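User: My instructor asked us to take a sequence, write out its structure as tokens, and then describe one feature of it. I'm not sure where to start. Here is the sequence I was given:
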Amino acid sequence: MKSFLFILLMVLCAACSSYNYDNENDPTSPSYRPPHIEASQGTRNHIKLKWEQREYAVEYIITRREGTDSEKEIFRSTSAASYKDYDVLYGTSYFYTIRAALSTGITTRESPPAEGYRNLPQPVYILRLPDGEDQSF
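Assistant: Let's start with the prediction itself. The structure tokens for your sequence are:
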């Protein structure tokens, strides 16, 4: 009887270890859902990124792509849930993704890209007053 239970236990352990458990809500799974990221559109001198914080995340890694250029890591954080990217040009769209490094040792897959861009600068109007002074607004 003991040998039968031992063999049964070995078979069950082998079955459990070979089972490929893949669940986007399980932080031990490679498919653990990445954070959702949003990028502002039409801000004045930067693009503001914000993302949802994930349970078990110990670090967030933000990458940026411009047009057909390759992705470049621009920010890492252990606690922030937002970032302002000032290294952006007027009239250019940037695409941002985020991954989370988890306390379980797994890094999530990349999020879907979020597009962000900044507006053209607001024009400055200068009004020359009769007394020779300039008034800008």
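For the description part of your assignment, you could build on this observation: The longest strand covers residues 57-66. Try explaining in your own words what that tells you about the chain.
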